[in-house]
Amino acid sequence: MTTAETPTQRSDDDTAARGKPQQRRAFWFLLAAGVLVASTYLIAALQPGPRFTSEDVRIATVASRPIPSFLPRNELDRQISTFEARVAGSPEVLDLRFLAGLYIDRARASGDPTNLLQAEAALEQALEQYEGDILAATMLAQVRVSLHDFDGAIELTEAILAVDPDRFSALAASGDALLSVGDYENARSRFELIVEVAADDPGVLIRRSELAWLEGDRTSAVQLVELAASSIPEFRTREAAFFGATAAQMAFEAGMLDRALDHAEQAFGLDPESP
To answer: Residue 13: is its pLDDT beyond 60?
Structure first.
């Protein structure tokens, strides 16, 4: 004899049947949420940390020994020999960085790109010893711009500016690299930041000149580079000659031949051995 279901029993069964899909949905929701959270943590764990830290910024800010620039040629060669001997025996980060600055200066004085490769090697060795060396990284970015490794320069400067967005030298190197790959908009934004700090600095004027030239304003470009050249006193002979030669080249390319000749003769008179 079959026992008949009561209305109460049927109601309980219906409720249980309706509850099972809801339980399944809740289970899959919780499972998906768990997978999402676990994936987020895993991705974060696998992501490389920032290249530089606030401590690296502090160290770079108080770092001693300025980078050499436009030394007399005989003093430049003497210091290179001295520091090559020092790093050969016991390479220290400061010595490697300083030696790289000397190589960069000699590249400018001689026109020999081998010096840039030597600077690159010294800076890479410095970064192997202390990967947070912002000064070495910025110098390496500038060297890479000179060697036309623009992507490498952009990668380095972006890492520096992510933690130290006001570092002047990194902004300048970043703008140089971005300008070279045709990213004028971002190059302009970098240069505008350094103009706010030092609008009349010769290095800033040169960069403003290059940007004006690429945007088709040749008159402004020549005026800015001439302003840069006139701001260097002649007793700083190598530096004054370098900026004068740059002004001569740009005036020549703009078809301003008399002005180009004046700048070239003045520069040659200051530094007749300059390439």
So the answer is: no
CA distance linking residue 176 with residue 59, whole number of Å: 25
Query: Residue 266, Cα to own-chain centre: how many angstroms?
Result: 33
pLDDT of 99 > 70? The answer is yes
Indicate the pLDDT class of residue 199, thresholds 50, 70 and 90. confident
* CA-CA-CA-CA dihedral for 82, 242, 123, 130, to nearest 10: 100
Per-residue burial over 89-102, b = 16 or more CB atoms within 10 Å of its CB, e = otherwise: eeeebebbbbbbbb
**CA separation for the pair 96, 88 (Å, rounded):** 10
In this structure, which amino acid lies at residue 238?
R
pTM of the shown model: 0.77
Which helix or strand (DSSP H or E) is residue 152 part of?
Answer: helix 150-163
- Alpha carbon dihedral 145, 100, 268, 221, in 10-degree steps, equals 30
Least-confidence region, from 17-21, 44-48, 115-119: 44-48
